[in-house]
Amino acid sequence: MKKLIHQLKYYFSFTKRERRGIIVLFSLMLLLLIIRMFIFPYLTKNQHLNIDKFSKEITAFESYSDSAGKAEHNKSYSDNQKFDFNNSDKSFAAINLKPFEFNPNTIQTDEMKEMGLSDKQIKTLLNFRNKGGKFYKKEDFKKMYCISSEEYNILEPFISIPDNRTNSNTSVKYENKQKAVFTAELNSADTNDLQEIKGIGPAFARRIANYRNKLGGFVKKEQLREVYGIDSAKYAMIQASVTINASAIQKININKASIQELKKHPYFDYYVAKAIVSYRTLHGEFKSVSEIRKVNLVYDDFYNKIAPYLSVN
Q1: Which of 40, 53, 197, 243 is deepest in the core (most CB within 10 A)?
Q2: Cα–chain-centroid distance for residue 171?
Q3: 175-248: which CATH topology?
């Protein structure tokens, strides 16, 4: 028992230095308690949160957000909403419009989309033309309510309207007759010549010329159907206005061309090009174009399609 009491005294007894530290610690705790209870309330009495005022501010902000959202929604391009084209932002127009030379009397739907006009604007312009409307000068295009002043300023340098107005019925008939007999030779016509064809604007003229260069020339009119955007209706509209000079075709020498050179042609893929070059390597040069029929991947329909573009010397 005495030993236990001795051990307890050992653990619960403090030195003079430890007692002094305990007194200082309790003094600091007491001081902080007094500050918290009697001084701090006076320092913070004017900083109480006004819940009522805060609630009113939240309500006001929500009301503003709702009204702002509705205002923004009313500016959408939806067919069921009215859009204020005259207040469109110039920077927005500059970013979205990709202008090129065009005639607003003849420009087609896909060309207008390519230029960056919205569906609403395209529909309005087509309705105007379908009802007999016509643009006689650049300023007439500006009068369309669907075209803002900012958009007009961007498009104006690219508007091209031929000065072919006439009050004479005989002149109108002559003009229509001239358009009807105009033809363009596809393998030599430039983009300006192609645009003379009814239904061909700048965009289609560029596509036709680019595809012709990749092919090496057109062999038959039906190949126009392979140009992006030319469907059966468009082809029917323009086919009578074009001719073909097959002697202008640029041919590929299948005894010299590499895989990469063959693959540049729209009708070749990598595997057919490789098969032809491999056959040539194993069996020697082709004596005639028809010999490529012996290549495994060259089936009859493909041969008939590609043969006009090949030579052996």
Answers
A1: 197
A2: 43
A3: DNA polymerase; domain 1 (1.10.150)
